[in-house]
């Protein structure tokens, strides 16, 4: 029982980061009906900003708001340079554009910075633990879980109790009708990308604290985790994104601890197999979401 509780706590800590990534993916999908495969590049850019700033002697107390700001600015820049130019295109064109952004950002860092992995110091408390009975809980996991829950509550309040949130929900339900009712498409879409950037920035803080490194392809893994978590939970659902993130994190931790040592390295493959089975029997994900019209 102790081992199971330990795995649950570790899985929730890991899944919280996936949930934050999935939230950003879900926000963009809800408004534009776009599965944004360029979402991970926000972590790549934030990672290099962290490397340069920490190398210049900045502390992590300053880095946290800087990473969020860089993530938001990058998200808005990507929307302005890439997605605003193909906004009226079909879904396949938007999907190709998101892949194109991913490869362009990776190529820029590869050509003009370096192909090597850049490392930077992590906060000293990341590896600290504390005891609760027979359990050893990481301070990092506790902070991630608390921040994820607070972020979900704050995001829900923004969507439910602000004019921007009302416009965003109206656009997600039916963009054409929302525009006829006076909702400005440019403002809503840019607001969605800004909110997605904030969520990705918060996820970036914890991802970079945990990894302590970045590279031109650093965004691939978090992008895949975020997209998978959003798909598991149900695309377009914020609650589903969080549920999908926790589910993915728990599955990875529990499988890694339960599988024999000889096949433990195949945990990722087993997780993908389970996800494939989920999509066969429940293709809409864990939470069904009405189809959202795209502008």
Write up this protein:
The protein has eleven helices and four strands. Helix 2 packs antiparallel against helix 3. The radius of gyration is 19 Å and the shape is globular. It starts with a helix and ends in a 14-residue tail after the last helix. The model has no long low-confidence stretch (mean pLDDT 84).
What key attributes describe this structure?
11 helices; mainly alpha; 295 residues; 4% strand; ABC transporter involved in vitamin B12 uptake, BtuC; two-stranded antiparallel ribbon; two-stranded antiparallel sheet
The count of helical stretches stands at 11
The poorly predicted ranges are none
Which topology does CATH recognise? ABC transporter involved in vitamin B12 uptake, BtuC
The helix/strand class is mainly alpha
Distance between the termini: 50 Å
Quick one: CATH class? Mainly Alpha
């Amino acid at each position: 029982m102790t081992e199971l509780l330990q795995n649950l706590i570790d899985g929730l800590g890991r899944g919280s980061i996936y949930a934050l990534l999935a939230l950003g993916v879900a926000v963009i999908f809800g408004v534009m009906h776009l599965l944004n495969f360029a979402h991970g590049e926000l972590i790549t850019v934030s990672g290099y900003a962290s490397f340069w700033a920490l190398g210049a002697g900045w502390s992590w107390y300053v880095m946290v708001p800087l990473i969020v700001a860089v993530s938001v600015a990058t998200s808005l820049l990507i929307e302005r340079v890439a997605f605003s130019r193909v906004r009226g295109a079909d879904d396949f064109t938007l999907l190709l554009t998101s892949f194109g952004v991913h490869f362009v950002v990776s190529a820029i860092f590869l050509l003009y910075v370096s192909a090597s992995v850049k490392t930077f110091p992590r906060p000293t408390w990341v590896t600290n633990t504390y005891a609760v009975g027979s359990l050893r809980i990481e301070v990092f996991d506790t902070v991630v879980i608390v921040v994820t829950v607070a972020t979900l509550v704050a995001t829900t309040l923004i969507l439910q109790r602000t004019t921007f949130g009302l416009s965003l929900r109206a656009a997600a339900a039916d963009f054409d009708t929302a525009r006829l009712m006076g909702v400005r498409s440019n403002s809503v879409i840019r607001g969605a990308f800004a909110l997605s950037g904030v969520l990705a920035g918060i996820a970036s803080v914890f991802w970079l604290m945990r990894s302590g490194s970045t590279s031109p392809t650093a965004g691939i893994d978090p992008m895949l985790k975020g997209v998978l978590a959003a798909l598991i939970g149900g695309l377009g659902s914020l609650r589903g994104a969080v549920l999908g993130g926790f589910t993915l994190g728990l599955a990875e931790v529990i499988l890694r601890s339960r599988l024999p040592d000889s096949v433990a390295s195949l945990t990722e493959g087993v997780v993908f197999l389970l996800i494939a089975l989920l999509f066969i029997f429940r293709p809409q994900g864990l939470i069904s979401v009405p189809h959202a019209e795209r502008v």
